[in-house]
Design brief:
Blueprint: E1 3-5, E2 12-14, E3 16-19, H1 30-42, E4 47-49, H2 58-70, E5 78-83, H3 100-114, E6 119-124, H4 133-145, E7 149-155, H5 159-171, E8 179-181, H6 190-195, H7 197-202, E9 206-209, H8 238-245, H9 249-265, H10 270-279, E10 284-289, H11 294-301, H12 303-306, H13 312-322
Parallel strand pairs: 3-4, 3-10, 4-5, 5-6, 6-7, 7-8, 8-9, 9-10
Antiparallel strand pairs: 1-2
Length: about 325
Amino acid sequence: MEYRRLGNSGLQVSALSLGSWVTFGTQVDIDKAVANMQAAYDAGVNFFDNAEGYEAGQSEVVMGKAIKRLGWRRDSYVVSSKVYFGAVKNPGPNQKGLSRKHVVEACHQALERLQLDYLDLYFCHRPDPNVPMEETVRAMSDLIQQGKVLYWGTSSWSAQQIMEAYAVARQYNLVPPVMEQPRYNIFSREQVEVEYARLYRTIGLGLTTFSPLASGLLTGKYNDGVPEDSRLNLPGYEWLRQRLLGEGSQVRIEKIKQLAKLAAELGTNTARLALAWCLKNPNVSTVITGASRVEQVHDNMQAVDLLPQLTADVLQKIEDILQNQPAPRPFQ
């Protein structure tokens, strides 16, 4: 496993990490969570990602019980949570968002579900236009001062919103955000490669990217339809099915088939190729993977070994297939 600094912080995270969205609490029970987390841990993974909004907090409950059973040293792994959506199915006005009240209470509740004394990483899962930026930044900074959180950051925020949070922190001598968690894969590139470009240099922003396989699309398993056991058939995820297999999906699937041929030439598969492609971006601190089975964990972890094969020539072949490299903005 390769380890990378989380932005300009001193924290080292594994290049590949394990997330729990959709899987923990739905496809993965405690026994499977223990097996998947142990397989990842044995492969060198030290970062495990979660959020209050994943299955209304049940994902954190499953992960917390798994961690308890595994009995790892607390200083050998990194755990995150995210705040915004709430941990109840129909949240009231103060049970969601980024108000000081919810940010603080959500942190305490996440710690209880995860059975931990502190969170290594705490993300604002979405921006909240109804809350003053200073209120959210101050709440996060206070949690860090209290030792309940070690680093805080954002998820799916715009570059402008991240910079506003950073500026507020500097203005009032508070702790600034360290990391952002955006979607990043070969079909979703603009934000990571263009919008955030200046932030890596100016504030040392770190990235914990999610959806590297486009919710399974890049495994090739949807090339000929949707398997019965797929997450796209889960109740409540109809929106994801529409996003992946709606308009333009056939064009993407044809590109995936071409990528599969290139992967075969390299002696690998499209999933590992897609993961390794994300890892080639030097601004990515860690790529969050998902898995419902141990076999998937083992397969994903092999992506790190593929990195030396992704030469400039191979990367150009990928670009020739994709034809979607975003153009840099003039101010960059």
